Amino acid sequence: MNNEEPILDEAMDNLKEAAQRIRATQNRVLASGLVDHPDYGELSHRLSAALAMTEAAFVEARRRSEQRSSG
Fold first, then answer.
1. Per-residue pLDDT tens digits for 16-25
2. Neighbouring C-beta atoms of residue 66, cutoff 10 Å
3. How far is CA 28 from CA 19, 40, 56, in A?
4. Which pTM was predicted?
């Protein structure tokens, strides 16, 4: 399918941007010292999970893109 590559490229761009934004939010929470605050502990945990999932999706999209390029 010829239309897979643009979709994978767009996915990687969007996932990269999403990871950067999640990291920025995570850094703000950390810098504010709110990680241990009862109202922000769960948010911090969910940001970590979201970042891990986003990075995993990026790696998968890149893997598929590389397979398309070499195959």
1. 999 999 999 9
2. 11
3. 14, 11, 23
4. 0.85
